[in-house]
Amino acid sequence: MPTITNIEDLRALAQKRVPRMFYDYADSGSWTEGTYRANESDFQKILLRQRVAVNMDNRSTATTMVGHDVRMPVALAPVGLTGMQHADGEMLAARAALDFGVPFTLSTMSICSIEDVSEAVGGRPFWFQLYWMRDRDFMERLLDRAKAANVSALVLTLDLQVIGQRHKDLKNGLTAPPKPTLANIVNLMGKPRWCLGMAGTRRHTFRNLVGHAKGVSDMSSLGAWTREQFDPRLNWDDVAWIKKRWGGKLILKGIMDVEDARLAADSGADALVVSNHGGRQLDGAPSSIAALPEIVAAVGRDIEVWMDGGIRSGQDVLKAWALGARGTMIGRAFVYGLGAMGQAGVAKALEIIRNELDITMAFCGHTDLRKVDRSILLNGPAAAGADSDRQSKA
Ligand SMILES: Cc1cc2nc3c(=O)[nH]c(=O)nc-3n(C[C@H](O)[C@H](O)[C@H](O)COP(=O)(O)O)c2cc1C
After folding, report:
1. 281 in ligand 1 pocket by Cβ < 6 Å?
2. Does ligand 1 come within 6 angstroms of the Cβ of 279?
3. Is 68 noted as a catalytic residue in this protein?
4. How far apart, in whole angstroms, are the C-alpha atoms of residue 260 and residue 241?
5. Nearest CA to 68 among 264, 242, 270?
6. Do the domain assignments include residue 238?
7. How far is the CA of 167 from the centre of ligand 1 (A)?
């Protein structure tokens, strides 16, 4: 096995080990994938200020996210079909995250159920992400199930009432479990480790939903679920209803616009996540890191502002923090670890990111993340987007 030193190593190994349809599902954006690429490449444009001869002893990256202690400001983002990257993937990722000291968020569209994950983490608290569906009885029951499972924060995703087109998923005929077509069988024959894992678990489809929600023609298809069950009428009144019905910590995910950020702050939610869904929804939207500074400036005093999208290193986390994000979420960075090496791979991804965050913070002359601000950046707060490139040249 190759020596793993960064997230790219985990990605390359995951590509070898995970069946093509599920690897492609993770490593893709919508339409031209322009926003997906910008999420990563805009981080690269931000330059750090090197400081020297500063005491770098006794460093800390610890902080809080919606009042929860975290070892670093990074939570595992909700990722649908995580249990298809590796058998029992959500249970393994949740254990890795909680053992490490960061939050895990279970997607509505997960393979392992809320109850499976709760059992896997021995009743410790985790977070749950909600997609708003037409079947209101089911929604209420899902919230009750989350409460019963000790879920300590609800992440409401606002940017997927209709699904962005990802070409590869359509071409691959994405389903969970995969359909026994010739192409799938040939591909699976080259993934013995994955097949063995799947043979050892009974968790093969959307266990939060199947047997609980009704009215979907193909229970194994993400496309069918979103088309037939996701409620395209979701609005701020629904957000208010959900907040009241849930009654606990609420995080609104998928905010890219200052006006929406104001509405999110006014809703009384505890945090908002500046996110374009990892470039999987509105292709042509700016990168999340480019959208962040303006949103922080508008509502950062009223609500915790987090971001996700394109984080592949601890340096990215530090840059997001410096631009005002009080938390981040990672999607693909942990998914690649899971596909590559199961629970150990998720732990590895988290160690890599924390180490990079810690060392970079030290190079920038800081020992306590909470004291880091935008003064560690050379090219200023709005440096990430195309407009800001023009501004800095002007
Ligand atoms: C394979 C995949 C599945 C995802 N599924 C969900 C989901 O079920 N619910 C959700 O709110 N976000 C989902 N997301 C978006 C992530 O929560 C997160 O916003 C995104 O992955 C961040 O970008 P990154 O992957 O570059 O870190 C998914 C992302 C990926 C890559």
Report:
1. no
2. no
3. no
4. 18
5. 270
6. yes
7. 17
Q: How many domains does the chain have?
A: 1
Please name the residue whose Cα sits nearest to atom 19 of ligand 1. Answer: 277
Ligand 1 atom nearest residue 332's Cα: 25
Residue 91's domain comprises 7-40+60-359
Q: Which atom of ligand 1 is nearest to the CA of 253?
A: 11
d(CA 161, CA 363): 43
The residue type found at 151 is V
Tens digits of pLDDT across the chain (394 residues): 789 999 999 999 999 999 999 999 999 999 999 999 999 999 999 999 999 999 999 999 999 999 999 999 999 999 999 999 999 999 999 999 999 999 999 999 999 999 999 999 999 999 999 999 999 999 999 999 999 999 999 999 999 999 999 999 999 999 999 999 999 999 999 999 999 999 999 999 999 999 999 889 999 999 999 999 999 999 999 999 999 999 999 999 999 999 999 999 999 999 999 999 999 999 999 999 999 999 999 999 999 999 999 999 999 999 999 999 999 999 999 999 999 999 999 999 999 999 999 999 999 999 999 999 999 999 854 644 444 443 333 2
Residue 47 located in a structural domain: no
Q: Tell me the C-alpha distance between 276 and 36, whole Å.
A: 9
CATH assignment of the domain containing 215: 3.20.20.70
Among protein residues, the one whose CA lies closest to atom 31 of ligand 1? 26
**What's the gap in Å between 179 CA and the centre of ligand 1?**
23
* Distance of alpha carbon 75 from alpha carbon 197, whole angstroms: 26
Question: Is residue 24 situated within a structural domain?
Answer: yes
Ligand 1 atom with least separation from CA of 309: 23
**Cβ of 330 less than 6 Å from ligand 1:** yes
Task: Report how far ligand 1's centroid is from the alpha carbon of 115 (Å).
Answer: 21
Residue 393: inside a domain: no
Q: How far apart are CA 2 and CA 11, in angstroms?
A: 12
248: its two tokens: 């606990």
Q: Is this structure's pTM higher than 0.90?
A: yes
Distance between CA 64 and CA 316 in Å, rounded? 18
Return the residue whose CA atom lies nearest to atom 20 of ligand 1.
278
